[in-house]
Amino acid sequence: MAVLFALLLTACGGGDGSASAKPDLADQDRFLHDYVRFLNTSDEDGLAGLLDAHPQGSKDARARIKAYGGQDWDVRWTRTSDFEGVWKVDMTGTAGTKHRPIRVTETITWEKADWVMNPLPGVVPTPPDAAGTEPPG
Fold first, then answer.
1. Cβ distance 108 to 116 under 8 Å?
2. Is beta strand 100-111 parallel, antiparallel or unpaired with respect to 114-117?
3. For the whole model, what pTM was predicted?
4. What pLDDT digit, counting tens, does each position of 40-63 carry?
5. In whole angstroms, how far apart are CA 22 and each of 27, 79, 109, 115, 137?
6. Which of 47, 50, 74, 137 stands 20 to 30 A from 116 (CA)?
């Protein structure tokens, strides 16, 4: 009976560990290093591939390149997590030849064994009945 249950669990997508893989913060660091590298080189395709775990990843990549691309970021980050699988990442450093100070805060979640960065505001339309929105007047 136990063998049958294990077989059914594996057939239904459970049991292989991929969906429940634990987040690895060293992997998150690699994700963030790639993120900064793609921004600095204005590599929209590379950034879209990195952000593809979100359904609007390619639109978000385009918006991020427009906002932050090619600015020669030199950043470090700190992260905090108040909820399991969710991190607030504060990126601080400089940008460009004049070393302008920058500070960007991102929310990164661990979903289905992928790092997912919340899209920039305006990339994904906000539903009219979402929390924090005013009802139509």
1. yes
2. antiparallel
3. 0.76
4. 999 999 999 999 988 889 999 999
5. 11, 17, 12, 11, 45
6. 74
List the 86-95 sheet strands across, edge first: 74-83, 86-95, 100-111, 114-117
pLDDT band, very low/low/confident/very high, at 74 (cuts 50, 70, 90)? very high
Cα-based distances in Å from 102 to 36, 86, 90, 92, 93:
13, 23, 10, 6, 5
Both structure tokens of 78: 């700190």
Q: Which helix (H) or strand (E) covers residue 86, if one does?
A: strand 86-95
> What would the two tokens of residue 49 be?
């591939």
Residue 56 has what pLDDT? 87
How many other C-beta atoms are found inside a 10 Å radius of the C-beta of residue 131?
A: 6
Q: DSSP characters for 26-56?
A: HHHHHHHHHHHHHHHTT-HHHHHHHTTTSTT
Contact 85, 109 (CB under 8 A): yes
Q: Is residue 58 a contact partner of residue 48, using CB atoms and an 8 Å limit? A: yes
Average pLDDT over residues 66-75: 94
